[in-house]
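Our consortium's second objective concerns turning raw sequence data into structural hypotheses that experimental partners can test. To show how far this objective has progressed, the report includes one record in full. It was chosen at random from the queue rather than selected for favorable results. The single chain below, 228 residues long, was entered without modification.
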Amino acid sequence: MTEFTVAEVRVGPARPFGPGTSAIDKAPVSGPVMAGPEGLAGDEQADRGHHGGPDKALHAYALSNYPLWAAEMPDKAGRFRPGAFGENLVVEGADESAVCLGDRFRLGGALVEVSQGRQPCWKLNLRFGRPDMARRVQESGRCGWYFRVLEPGTITAGDRAALVARPNPRWTLARTSHLLYHDRLNRADLAEFAALPGLPDSWRRLALARLDSGRTEDWSRRIDTPGA
């Protein structure tokens, strides 16, 4: 995969959601939107401790994942439409098996870099009306991913992204997800993963902690709905 298309660009404000606030409900934008190191103009993140910032400037989700979800959960099929996962970029022509950590793309007027996959949280449980939705997303590997913005510029729905660098061809997002959530204590892969250039500090610490302790970190606060 050397290119993909942005089917939609989406932004949204933080609003009341469950026990707190969230900007997961984003609307499509027509026309160019400026993308910078902190994200898209007009977009917000309610929880800056876990969302947004340079390593999570743009959230992308593969359009091809939606019919897979609808087929797996036909009772919720109407909810699986572009934007349902709170993404900024609805991506057509690429998914987690085709995108690698560190990939750089020229997208519209911006230069972006794949920084990490999304780690699903309990807000997806509320979004889709299923107490196990975050866990299902994690187990499926259909998590979406984040871009850093290395060079600011405008992005418009319909823009094609062209691959300009692939420093880590062995580390697709699908392989990364398999290591983090399935083959969790594979020491050789954890060591290789921790040494990847440009890996976010939080993921490097996670890998090193597993290597040091021989244990997987507790996910319950992230994927279990508070008070459930």
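The partners drew two points from this record. The radius of gyration is 17 Å. DSSP finds seven helices and 13 strands in the chain. Both points have been shared with the crystallography group to help prioritize constructs.
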